Amino acid sequence: MFHEKTDENNGLTMAEIIAFLAKHDIRANRKTLYQDFAELKKFDIDILSERQGKRVVYFLASRKFELPEMKLLVDSVQSAKFISDKKSRILIKKLESLVSDYEASELHRQVIINGRIKTMNESIYYHVDKIHRAIHTNRQVDFRYGNWDINKKIVPRHGGKIYHISPWHLIWDNEYYYLLGYDSEVQLIKHFRLDKMLELKISKKPREGAHEIEDLDIATYSNRLTGMFAGPPVKLSMEVKTDLIGVIIDRFGSNINLIPKDDEYCIAHVDAVISNQFLGWIIGLGPGIKIIAPADAVQRLKEIGQRLLEQY
Fold first, then answer.
1. Are 199 and 144 in contact (CB under 8 A)?
2. Which CATH number fits domain 227-311: 3.30.70, 1.10.4030, 1.20.120, 3.40.91?
3. Given this structure, which CATH class describes domain 123-216?
4. pLDDT for 182
5. What per-residue confidence (pLDDT) applies to 110?
């Protein structure tokens, strides 16, 4: 009753509390209720009173989550691309049950604003749980990995090959969930997008690659990859306009090497994987940024520019 019907801004009078309990065949009076409030306090459930005009109301003063915290959780669920729209609504409904009916309406008003792109693959929700269990029990996972086809279905790669991977970390990058694990077959650390996994199962085989993962800096690994496209990292030098320094730090972190060139530009040295998506990101930043080394990255940008001229 107090959990659903009251909060710091909405309370119940003693008469309303007694009437509510009577509807549920519970007999109570002021004396017994005061005793009940004292007992609840022993379990850290504080029922406080407040005078509102001529009325004295009683309300639940403390909850595990405050309303601003719940709003953050709801926003996170709604904006997470890897959670389907249907699953988002189910989770948000559960979150609403943790606050009063009045506060739940505030959360609901936030939820109405949607239209964001959400995954169509509900299995991600269960993939996350299964991978966490595999990590906790020190087991490998088996799955098929695929790509989207013209019918918007995931089609297995390499004739339905089963991947045997030792899971070590889950990475949330650019609104997608990735499994970071060790592939014993090729003895490499790899990452896989969860929404492209099919028939994920926990294996009976123990995990491998502990030494390789131990030597890996996860933050550096993910920062090198734009959109988590794989490839060998290279030392990259860029001429960057000073008003774009924040963009570079957001992408690569604050430990990058920045050398002033003049009042308007600096030289940034970073480690990056030179994928087409990364080069597209560079192009999208406009004339304020220019790759100056290595030479093959500069050449790839020129080839992309030439192709675009011919294509359009």
1. yes
2. 3.30.70
3. mainly beta
4. 95
5. 46
